[in-house]
């Protein structure tokens, strides 16, 4: 059963969406309650899995490009396999199954159009086994949300999808920067 948010919880979430660094004290003053009460509500929201605190990055400030990739797979097993393979991709900011069929939607970010072209034409997401067809929609600029859950890789080794970026001709010819998880990545993410 879906859990209903209280009025106080909705107000706290609204404040945090506007300023994720708002202090308990400041929120308490705004809500006419103690900072301890605010903290209890926030911990309850976190413990119930309703919210989490994380850093969102601005694609506009980082001058990133984005594309929506729509994928139709041949069967449910192929869709599940593709989702599992790419769920940890540092370039994906959104990945979901669609209702009605074996369809997947992915939203990806890239440093420039050459990298975006690599992701949408050469890299494995659109060419993986089990894909019947795919479509790419390239966006010009993201209006909302201003900040996205762009994954930063702290220690580079190899892409989670298993692709070998280091031997890719597009990387060797400086057309693509590679995967941010790869040890041979040449970009700024």
UniProtKB/TrEMBL annotation:
SUPFAM superfamilies: Winged helix' DNA-binding domain
Keyword Transcription: yes
GO molecular function: sequence-specific DNA binding
Statement: the UniProt record of this protein carries the keyword Repeat: no
GO term, biological process aspect, one: response to amino acid
All residue ranges annotated as the HTH asnC-type domain in the record: 9-35
GO cellular component: cytosol
Entry keyword set: DNA-binding, Transcription, Transcription regulation
UniProt cross-references to PANTHER family, sorted A to Z: LEUCINE-RESPONSIVE REGULATORY PROTEIN, TRANSCRIPTIONAL REGULATOR AZLB
Protein name per the record: Lrp/AsnC family transcriptional regulator
